[in-house]
Fold:
Amino acid sequence: MSKQLKVGEIEVVALSDGVSRLPPMFYPGLDVDSHPEVMDQDGTVHIPTGCFLIRTSGRVVLVDAGLGPVNLPFPEGMPAARPEPGQPVPYLAEGGLLPSALAEAACRPADVDTVFLTHLHPDHVGWVAPHGTPFFENATVVFGAADWEPLVMSAAVDDPGRRGLEAAVSAERTGPIEGDMVPIAPGLTARHAPGHTPGHYVLVIASGAERAYLLGDAVQCPLQLTETDISFLTDIDPALARRTREALFDVLEDEQAAVGMDHFPGLEFQRVLPGAGRQWVTF
Structure:
């Protein structure tokens, strides 16, 4: 089921494009013996591939674009999820659910005027232009310019994410951004939050006195709230990513804002309970 939130006059809906099954190696610093609850019975950590649909002042904004219509097997040498008896090995990542999730939220792809990408990893760009054709035909694709060279141009030329982003550029449908606190749409501001990638942004949603934050991959695991040594395998700069997380947690605790995260179990909106021993509580 989609998770919905009202931030003043702004509507936010959490959508899932699929699921990934990540071996513990993806979370350096995670002690799985102390936290067996994070592990599925297949020996991996299951996380959703989340996106967020926002309606604000007549604008329709999609935050992140999922993995796309693809399934990714476990690469050779990576510990795979244990299959159920008589079943094949599951995929590392499965996409393809975003169109039906949008339909459930009464949104057509043509309704979206802006696709805001928190960063340019493959599980956030998959529906930009699958098969080389822009999926959101009327949308401008907005992303941190600093991610282009290290994440897109370094990918294989036949990489689906790279092909999709290059198709968006060819169609003149992109709007790269730089700097901090960049306006995106009424009530929506992009805050630079580097570390996971150089051009990673979180989205600040504000309406009246109410605030919400969509954190992208600035936070990858709920345990990072209190166990600051846990990082993520694809953090380009783990030390900077940690400092960014801590700064965000301070703001979230102070403002008591709603929080949405692309890979938080259940895609439920959270807030940080203040005081000693911070904890997440469902908003």
Notes: The mean pLDDT is 96. The first strand starts at residue 3 and ends at 7. Helices lie at 98-104, 148-153, 160-170, 238-255. The domain at 3-282 is CATH 3.60.15.10 (Metallo-beta-lactamase; Chain A).
